[in-house]
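[recover] target loaded
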């Protein structure tokens, strides 16, 4: 068997392995093809990271908003921190961008993520929180996932991540505190939401 054929087979196996537990966009699959060893590491780390993300205390300490809230900020920051312990940030940044490209395709297809239709500011939020994750993971390469969890929570409560502004009823509001109206039946990629520091307290 030629070296080229072996390489192709390995790449296909790598993509298949990571796809078994994660629904990948074509952009993420392309990333995996170009970074097969990193893709295998992501798959392995992702399984353990999800176990931490599903711990009930997060919803108590942070909030219960998997989209646009502190829980959402934790997910992106924590997972990227865990990945950054083992994978170069340059590769992970490309993965984050690939994921957001996939979210735009989801928007066009009216597919939701975490129960909500993706939008432009949500992508900005995710990419910013990814960067915080890179910083934490790179500075704490030997820390356990439990320790990373604590570090990420501390940074979120200190306002180092970003979230979407909401009122006390959990509704999105713009930067003038006006409720953001639902766009159905018209889809809009750009909505007048408002990014705030993650230590923001939901108010009227």
């Amino acid at each position: 068997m030629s070296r080229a054929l072996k390489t192709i087979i390995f790449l296909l196996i790598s993509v298949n392995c990571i796809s078994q537990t994660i629904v990948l966009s074509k952009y993420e699959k392309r990333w995996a093809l170009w970074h097969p060893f990193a893709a295998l590491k992501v798959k392995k780390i992702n399984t353990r990271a999800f176990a931490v993300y599903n711990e009930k205390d997060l919803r108590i300490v942070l909030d219960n908003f998997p989209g646009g809230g502190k829980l959402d900020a934790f997910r992106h920051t924590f997972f990227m921190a865990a990945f950054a312990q083992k994978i170069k940030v340059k590769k992970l940044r490309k993965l984050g961008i690939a994921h957001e490209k996939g979210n735009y395709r989801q928007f066009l297809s009216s597919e939701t993520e975490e129960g909500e239709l993706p939008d432009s500011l949500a992508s900005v939020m995710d990419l910013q929180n990814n960067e915080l994750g890179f910083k934490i993971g790179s500075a704490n390469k030997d820390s356990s996932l439990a320790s990373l969890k604590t570090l990420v929570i501390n940074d979120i409560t200190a306002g180092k991540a970003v979230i979407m502004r909401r009122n006390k009823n959990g509704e999105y509001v713009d930067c003038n505190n006006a409720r953001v109206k639902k766009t159905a039946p018209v889809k809009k990629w750009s909505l007048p939401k408002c990014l705030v520091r993650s230590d923001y307290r939901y108010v009227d």
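[recover] notes: The mean pLDDT is 88.
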